[in-house]
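step=encode ok
step=design start
structure_in=
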């Protein structure tokens, strides 16, 4: 009898051990933790935020409205962005990531014309929603120090990269040398920003033929001068 009692106790302990081991092998998810492609979901939330800002205004772009637009819960939104301020900062960061990609282009060399062409093509492809949202964010950044800091940091990085590209072009003899590269970067950036402002309002001014003329004029402005060849 004692033998069977010992056997039963041993079997019970073994069973508990197996159940415990099995339990530890099952991963547990925290409450509200999204599953699937997290980067894709984050991008969807940023797109929803842009849509809400453009259609309802910055002030109305709450976490709840973004969740409704994205077709998810507010818990999903706050998993990625703990606050509206953080979400708006992420929208700005994402927009500059796109700008940086367009600026880099490919590895075939410096091609300012191609960079501006990509910029103008993107204005046409994205439509008015993206740019209305951009204007809203810029306007509110004047009164939101956190957003202003994001713009300042990312724009400074953008100008530094652009300045380095232009300086390289000057050394290679493809960009005029009589104006410092950092000033050219400021002037060309301001010109591109101006196109962004007017494109949603006067799209007829950016038809293919006129875009080509704008790009031709831009390249003429930064082309090497006779003195650069001496």
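sequence_out=
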């Amino acid at each position: 009898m004692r033998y069977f009692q010992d056997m039963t106790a041993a079997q019970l302990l073994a069973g508990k051990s197996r159940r415990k081991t099995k339990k530890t092998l099952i991963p547990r998810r925290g409450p509200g933790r999204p599953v699937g492609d997290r980067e894709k979901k984050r991008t969807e939330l940023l797109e929803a935020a842009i849509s809400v800002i453009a259609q309802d205004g910055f002030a109305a772009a709450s976490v709840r409205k973004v969740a409704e637009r994205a077709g998810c819960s507010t818990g999903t939104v706050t998993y990625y962005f703990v606050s509206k301020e953080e979400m708006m900062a992420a929208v700005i960061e994402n927009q500059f990531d796109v700008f940086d990609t367009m600026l880099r282009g490919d590895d075939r060399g410096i091609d300012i014309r191609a960079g501006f062409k990509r910029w103008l093509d993107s204005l046409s492809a994205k439509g008015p929603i993206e740019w209305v949202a951009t204007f809203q964010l810029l306007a509110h950044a004047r009164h939101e120090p956190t957003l202003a800091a994001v713009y300042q940091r990312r724009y400074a990085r953008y100008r530094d990269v652009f300045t380095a590209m232009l300086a390289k072009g000057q050394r290679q003899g493809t960009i005029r040398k009589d104006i410092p590269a950092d000033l050219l970067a400021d002037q060309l950036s301001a010109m591109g920003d101006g196109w962004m402002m007017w494109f949603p309002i006067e799209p007829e001014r950016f038809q293919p033929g006129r875009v080509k003329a704008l790009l031709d004029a831009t390249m003429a402005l930064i082309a090497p001068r006779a003195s650069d060849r001496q």
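step=design ok
step=annotate ok -> The chain has two domains: 29-82, 85-230.
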